[in-house]
Design a protein that fits this description.
The complex is a heterodimer of chains A (481) and B (274). With 481 residues, chain A is an all-alpha fold. Helices cover 74% and strands 1% of the residues of chain A. Chain A has a two-stranded antiparallel sheet with strand order 2-3. In chain A, a hairpin with a 2-residue loop joins strand 2 and strand 3. The longest helix of chain A has 45 residues. Chain B folds into 2 domains: 189 residues, Rossmann fold (3-Layer(aba) Sandwich); 67 residues, no CATH class. A 7-stranded mixed sheet of chain B has the order 1-3-4-2-5-6-8, with helices on both faces. Classes of the chains: A mainly alpha (481), B alpha/beta (274). Chains A and B meet through helix 1, helix 2, strand 1, helix 5 and helix 12 of A and helix 4, strand 7, helix 6, helix 8 and helix 9 of B.
Chain lengths: 481, 274
Amino acid sequence: MKKGEDENSESIGESILELASSLRWKVGPDYHDQLMESIYRDAARMADRAVTAVDEKPRVDWDRLLDRAITSRIFGFPIMTIALAIVLWITISGANVPSALLSRLLLDKLHPLLRNAGAAVGLPVWLNGLTFDGMYLAMAWVVSVMLPPMAIFFPLFTLMEDFGFLPRVAFNLDPIFKKVGAHGKQALSMSMGFGCNAAGVISARIIDSPREKLIAIITNNFALCNGRWPTQILIATLFIGALVPPALAGLISSMAVVGIALLGVVLTFVTSWFLSRTILKGEASTFSLELPPYRPPQILRTLYTSLIDRTVFVLWRAVVFAIPAGAVIWLLANISASGLTIAEHLIRQLNPFGLLIGLNGVILLAYIIAIPANEIVIPTILMLTVMSKTIAGFGEGAGVMFEFEQLSSYRTVFSAGGWTLLTAINLMLFSLVHNPCSTTLYTIYKETRSVKWTLVSALLPVVMGILICFFIARLYFLLIG
Amino acid sequence: MKTHQRNECDSCSHSRSPHLTRLGINSDRFEFTVALAGNPNTGKSTVFNRLTGLRQHTGNWPGKTVTRAEGGFIYRDKRYKLIDLPGTYSLLSNTADEEIARNFILFGQPDVTVIVVDAMRLERNLNLVLQILEITEKSVLCLNLVDEASRHRITVNETKLAADLGVPVVPATARKGVGMAELLKAIHDVVHGLYPCRPHRIRIESETVRSAVEMLVEKLRAAYPGLPNTRWIALRLLEGDVSVIEAVRNNELASLGHDPMVEKGIDAVRAVAK
């Protein structure tokens, strides 16, 4: 009985489908358009009856005026660049004070306290070192360097989004992205990447087409993230700023940093173009972008959501990855084999190749062990340099990362480490063009669910970075010798 | 007058909705499902946050909602589950967003669909509204952003609009919480049949299309008496909508008409979304 019923209903279903497909022929291919037309007509009639618009033009149409300026051919790009520079400037200068406070609290005060406490309860020296000099310090570094800029950058970014500026940025950049075979909305995920690449990768979700989403994810690394700004600023101040008279030093070094950021944008376009011509072939899909009205941003709500959704989320992931990295750094610097620590062995192995591409073994090793977070690259470089050159009077001991209060101390360590202008330039370039941090890589894996694309995202920039550094080194030796 | 001082939230100027308890992401043991639909950037997520108390990320940017959000609230002692659908301009094309929205409204059978529209761009928004009204009868129109519209000297006569559409129209400024109490009341009225919806149906001009639709509707009605949206199914069959064809083939339509197996519908949508 039951079975018969089922068969019966099945045949009814089939006969309905048959009728539908024969009718589909009859209504013809413009059925869809006809239906749409009917809908439009009804909608227009209804709107006409319900809406009263006073057609009196306001004296100044601010929205229109702003749009003219922001999306203008002449002013559009300068306005965007200036806006980016201002946001970054607020972020960097605003983060200095809280970063210093946090580092004084977490590093100068809490760290010795914890170490003493560890010793007091009778922890073995190695365990005390591993826990507090290794894992705790790495975590504290990441928090004190990363938290303040993110807590400033993300709300600023969200406010610009809320105000309606970012869609205009996407509008301006859309033609370029289209030309290189990528999606216009990639402008948004790229801007987000200046805050944090992991957040940028997540924001690539707004792109529908899987091909274009992958391009956006792989190239997001070229947006110079917050974690890398301190490296750029420090090296630019020490080496580039030193090339010119002191009065100009500030200006020149900050221009060098903005130059690196803009180079990142150019590399985003170049790499997107390369990907869409090779492994991610395809045409850019069209998308209609409706420019939303400008709205007064809701400041408190924005602060709350960007803090919870982005800052805390990203920070947590970074901390989770920094702790094991701290342990590895400490172990490498403290376990010895045939008279040298593992770190020193590795530096010797890496040094020839490092010098070939205008860097050195210390920098390469620092980049390898500091994969979890770009924030700890500079402290790791300092620690490794001091350790391998055994510069008397500097540093805190093997495996203990540190920073200096004074720029001159950096210069002493760097010159003892054999650094030149080339090392500085290439470090800045390599900091822009190398593999994403492991937080970002993990996010890429979570978003793409693909080992292959995660590997591509990791290897492509490293290879590019090595090539760029190599050519710059050749050029440098050719010109300067 | 116990309602106004129940807790701090209720006395806050942002909340003018008595009888409302926001449940955040907790949407267990709900009695009614409410779907939130609308064009991109009309403030769906803001309405969602207002009703559930969640702080889903909102932004002045079309297509902000990338994952479907669910939340819950209690209004006049009834538990509601609220689902924030992706914003779309239409429900007739084959993009993933439109498929999710359209299939949820059809197969998920929400008890009421709240359509959020931008008062400044009513005409274009109505294109979507009319399509939704083809799928489901029980709808409420949330006429959002009226403050922005009045800043641009645009006024919408909600009484005329409600009469034309055959569903309640609630003017609102969700960002400031204005109109949320009225919206809840309208949801309540529609769910409980206190406001009988008589939704506008699209007038098809072409004679051939109209007769084709009528033939299919007749056949569908005979096969599935009790199916509420035969005309939409007919329209979709003519379009060649794969998921509707599949639903006809495996007899899922029969269950749509009789007992609204909401969860089953949601599963179907999830499968499609994947």
